[in-house]
Specification:
It is a single chain. The protein folds into three domains: 36 residues, no CATH class; 86 residues, Rossmann fold (3-Layer(aba) Sandwich); 71 residues, NadA-like (Rossmann fold). With 200 residues, the chain is an alpha/beta fold. The chain has eleven helices and nine strands. It starts with 5 loop residues before the first strand and ends with a helix. Helices cover 44% and strands 16% of the residues.
């Protein structure tokens, strides 16, 4: 929505591709093409096409964190903030679904919606690294802290969370919850915006 004619995307490749898709009239530059994302790399377009071809009766829903080539194969492209609502609506219509690429987010959506989904087997390396023993240590140090978890995290982390959601939803939860501090299980990029909205 920016009025600028030129966009510089300092991010991974799918972000630059998505910016160009959403703003085809603008010039989009990326400082490097070497920045990668494990979700994007874990869902090669040719292999995903074969998977979809093997299940032609399924509606294909993909997470925004995928390449343009994978998005082109999808019936729906969603962010983590709308994924549950979209999948729930499709499931209510009796549609069988393919979900890609993040298996943890897919399992979370399945649990929330009861949807029948075939899950692509990939994960975000940042969120997959979260472990309960690390969480136990943090919670013993900060017993009154709320736990905010992104749904790309393993199920055992999600089960312990005070709030689960996208980046924007976790920031809203930090504003809403009364805990004096928070343990935040997602990419560290959230902290600047969260500290602006919830200083202290």
């Amino acid at each position: 929505n920016d009025a600028a004619e030129t966009l510089i995307v300092a991010g991974v490749s799918f972000m630059g591709e998505t910016a160009k898709i959403l703003s085809p009239e603008k010039r989009v530059y990326m400082p490097t093409l070497e920045a990668t994302c494990s979700l994007d790399l874990g869902c090669p377009a040719d292999k995903f096409a074969e998977f979809c071809d093997a299940h032609p009766d399924h509606t294909v829903v993909v997470y925004a964190n995928t390449s343009a080539a994978v998005k082109a194969r999808a019936d729906w492209v969603v962010t983590s903030s709308i994924a549950v609502d979209v999948v729930e609506a499709l499931a209510d219509q009796g549609q069988s679904l393919i979900w890609a690429p993040d298996r943890y987010l897919g399992r979370y959506i399945q649990k929330r919606t009861g949807a029948e989904m075939l899950l692509w087997d990939s994960a975000c390396v940042v969120h997959e690294e979260f472990r309960l023993n690390d969480l136990d240590a943090l919670q013993s140090m900060y017993p009154n802290a709320g736990l905010l978890v992104h749904p790309e995290s393993p199920e055992e982390m999600i089960d312990r969370a005070d709030a689960v959601g996208s980046t924007s939803q976790l920031i809203e939860a930090a504003e809403r919850l009364s805990n004096p501090s928070f343990i935040v299980a997602t990419d560290r990029g959230i902290f600047y915006k969260m500290q602006q909205r919830v200083p202290g």
